[in-house]
Every structure is written in C-alpha cells, then in structure tokens.
Amino acid sequence: MIRDTLDIVGAFRGLHVLVLGDAMLDSYLLGRSTRLSREAPAPIVDVTSRVDAGGGAANTAANVSALGATATFLTVFGRDEDGDRLLACLARDGVRSDQVIRARERSTLVKQRVVAEPQLIVRFDQGTTQPLADEDEAELIQRLRRLFLASDAVIVSDYGYGVLTEKVIAALAELQRCAPRPIVVDAKHLPRYRDVRPTVVKPNFDEALALLGASRDPAADRADFVIRHAADFFACTGADHVAVTLDAEGALLLEADGTWYRTYAEPAPHARAAGAGDTFVATLALALAAGGSVIDGAELASAASGVVVQRDGTTTCDADDLRAAVASDGKIVPDESALRALVNAYRHAGRRIVLTSGCFDIVHRGHVTYLSQAKAQADVLIVALNSDDSVRRLKGADRPVNTFEDRARVLEGLSCVDHVLEFGEDTPEEVIRLIGPDVFAKGGDYTRETLPETPLVEALGGEVRILPYIDGASTTRVIEQIRSLEELRGTA
Asked: pTM of the prediction?
C-alpha cells in the first residue's frame, strides 16, 4: 500500500481542482506578554509581528496547490484592504484567484488572533456573513457552470457565511447530475447538499451530533456513537461516503453497506488544530481525482492532517511532507528483543494490546475492514505476519504471491496497524507467549472453539474475539479471478 499511495500522491500533479466556498483572512498578531493591564485583569501583549494566511476555503485551496495540483478558487469577498491581503495570500500560495469575485458591498471575513508565546489570548471575527447579492450570485453561478466542467474534482467548503446560497447549491446539483465527478463537501449544514449527491461529506464530530440533533456525552465513546448512527448520516446527507473526523482520535469512514474503516492520528495540542479539516478534504479530494479508493484517500488525508497539526497557525501540507509521512519507517519489529521492549513500554503506559495473525498475501477490502475492526478492540494493534516459508507450507508452493517485505510494507501503510512482525511457525503461539495479548483477534471463518490458539490466549489472561467475516472477499478468490482473466485472454 505504501507504493500505491505514493503513486497516488505523484498523480496529484496535473490535476485541476475547483474549490468553492467561504474565504476568510486568518491574521495572527504575534508578541510577548509580561504584565497585566491596570484597567482590567487582562494581559498586555507587545505585538512584534503580523502573519496573514488564507483561511476557510482559501486554506483548502492552498492545500490543494501545496500538494501539487492546480487549485482554482471560486468565491466572493470584499473590495477592501483585507481583501487585498487575502488576494496576496492566494498568490503566495499558488492558488488561481482570477475567478474570485470582489464585491464592494461586502466586507472580507477576517479572523484576527492575538498570540503571546504561543498562547492564544483572544480572537476577533468581523466581515459580511449575509447571503450574496443577486448580481454576485448570478455571476458566481455562471462561473461555476464553466469551471465545473474543466475540473477533475470539486471541493465545497461552506462555513455558512453566505457564499453558498440555495441557488448556488441547486446549480451544483444540476451539474453533478449531468457530468458527475468527485465532490467532497465540508459544510456546517450538510443536509443542504443532499440533492448534490456528494461523493464524500466530512463533518467533524460536533457537526455530526448537530446532524442528528444529539448532544455531546463526555463519557460516551465517540467512534462507537458514529458507527451506531451510520445509517442516519447517509439519510441526512445523501452522500456515497461519510468521513467523520475525530480530531486527535483520527477519522471514521462510513460506507453505505454498513462497513466502516478507521484511521488514526498522532495527538497534537488542540490550539494548533486550525485548518486541519481543510487539509483533510483537500487531500481526500485529490486522492479520489487521482483514481484512488476512498480508503486510500482517508489514509492520505489523515496523514496530511497529522502533518499540519504539529505546526502553529494556519498552514498546509505539501507533497513532500505527505510522502515523508506515508513512507516513514518504524512499524516493522526487527527482532524478539525489540518486541519485548515494545510490549513492556505499552504495559507500563497502561495500553491494551490486540494481536492478530495471518498471511495477508494480497491485501483486499476484507483485510482492510478486518484490521480496522481489530484495532478498535484495544489500543495497539500488532500483526504477526507469516514468513514466506510458513506461507508456502500452509498455502502451497505457488504462494506467497508477495514476499514478506512487500506484505509487511503494505500493512505498514495502514494507520490502524501499529506494528508488524514476522513469525516462521505454522501458528503464532510463540508470539502469543511473548506478547500475552489482551485480545487475540481472528476473522469470522473461525470460531472460538475451532481456533487452535484459544487455550493459550486464555491461559495467559487474554480474550479471543472473532470478528465478522467479509463475505466474498478472500485472497484465493482474487487469485482465481486473475487466473480466469488470463485464461480468457489466452483463448481470445
């Protein structure tokens, strides 16, 4: 998968993406604070510099450009000084802004933050949030009709600040019916886009709660809540796929058939999370436009978001950043000593370990879904991977199709997999003894009673969990289909 996803990133260059939505100027006043005001118990900040960046849909467009594609930005903002600053940001970020409409009667949206080493002290928001004037709306729709047909994908970034009117959305729905293409929608009010039939919608968790009219329960598991209400999200949005971002906990990709896939993220200080959602949708849309699957897109989007949340302010992830994040080493466990050290560290931190095992020769949809579900059983997922000799003994002389190195690299590319290790026996009993997993997970073609490892796992204090089998998904079936195609070509 690493090679595949890197190929997808390489295909970003040459793509044309239309970004439609609410633009804003993110302005940071940076300085130091060493005293309080005598007028009130408020810090005095000695401002030393100002940094401007495109925010909202402008940041989404900047991320598209940074990742190597051509980003055309369609929006309306003010013919004012802040609008000039925003236009300069777009030019600096390589975003095509020749389709931006400047309206005299609108004030450019500005979010101005005062930051003191590096604490955010206060944020001021100002600018026009009313719906577009009729003439600006008509001009926007006219440009949308022309630009839509010339784009490989469309991103809608709707913060509810007036650019995406009902007529604009209706025009987008008509275009999608006539000439469908990948559309990723990130909007405060997703039901407005139901007739558009988006490829993917991306609510964050609070927006997902709002969709259902639910309130946040601090004690509830957020991922479990999202999975239980998957059907409701599809009913509300009309989307083909739903990606619910969970900030530091990654994202959940929901499929219409009831399956789901989870990506995982490295935690970062919440104050640094500005713009991570913009990065997510930009990367996801590009992956779809490049021919990647939605799962490929979700993995790449999570990796890109993980890059930007480690940085201060409103920022982007470029193609080199993303390649480095995807291709980074560290998941393959080299030997028994390293495994013991890992397990001891996780035990000391109070983290629960789930272990699974298998050949994972040609990784398919069933494997990906299964591994995502396995990760959800505990905190850390370790995959014990059969050696090449072990696979030959179990599957026959013509297996494995892929070497251990290739199989391990594919698994390493999945964010749900924390570590991969090799074992040469026919069963992973020695690995189980070394790890003593809290959970040992296997696919639904087994039962607890027929699984040879059950007595050992339970004797060590662990639990065996049999996860649902994905009907019709197997490596053997994939190989048979390939052979059938080869035979057909041979007789043609």
From this structure: 0.76
